[in-house]
Amino acid sequence: MSAPLRVLLAEDEPFNLRRLGRLLREAGCEVVAELEDGPSVLAWLARDEAVDALFLDIQMPGLTGMDVAVDLPRPVPVVFVTAYAEHAVRAFEQAATDYLLKPVTAERLAATLQRLRAKAETVVETAAGREGPARPPAPLRFPVRAGDGVVLVDLARTTHFLFEDDAVWAFAGERLRTTWKTLAEAEQALGARVVRGHRHLLIRPEAVVGVRAGDSGRLQVRLAGGAELEVSRGAAPGLKARLGLA
Q: How far apart are CA 26 and CA 86, in angstroms?
């Protein structure tokens, strides 16, 4: 029997929070936290505790569910929950795993949980397939596309990686298209040599030459070569810790 899904709930209406929590437990989930606003979600995630999915109300005080999804400090599947169907398009633009309309029914929730479990099993199988007798250290060089082939670029030349236009781009004095298809693949390959800046950004900490406080807990980071980037409020504590600024 597979382990129960560990889920976090965020909903500012106590009745809806209790009801969804009850439905999830009845469906065999472990509810790891029940929170009432967006900042609490980001603070909980910054503790790096295990969670398999987030159920986020879209309209919450402080930060909306959409805001939280943009600022996630680590990739976690998101299910948006709301009373307003018109938010559906934006929800899926945020790469949501699913979208639930209130009042949530047990039948509709079951379909969502099936999708989440399938996603979790795929991640486990992929990770198991990558395991071998010994895992090599994170690479000091990585491949980028060059015509019909690839060339290897020194990580030490690179300041950051950005996911945009359906590709992972490395910035090493110039913008280079890597062979990775997702930022999660790049993060898996590079390991502790990079730090999340936001859901679409990885930063090499040694390339950071300055930081200053931004709006609402964000950081403005200056990199070698002059690039300035914004780090999300959720990722800021991790980067500051790596830089010895925590």
A: 29
Nearest CA-CA partner of 57 in 48, 47, 67: 67
Which structure tokens are listed for 23? 């439905």
Q: What is the pLDDT of residues 15-64, one digit of tens each?
A: 999 999 999 999 999 999 999 998 899 889 888 788 999 999 988 888 88
Residue 56's CATH number: 3.40.50.2300
Neighbours of 12 (CB within 10 A): 15
CA 93, 59, 219: angle at the middle one, nearest 5? 70
CA atoms of 8 and 6, how far apart (whole Å): 7
Q: Return the structure tokens found at 200.
A: 């679409």
Tokens of 109: 């929730």
Tokens of 132: 């071998």
Residue 211, domain extent = 141-242
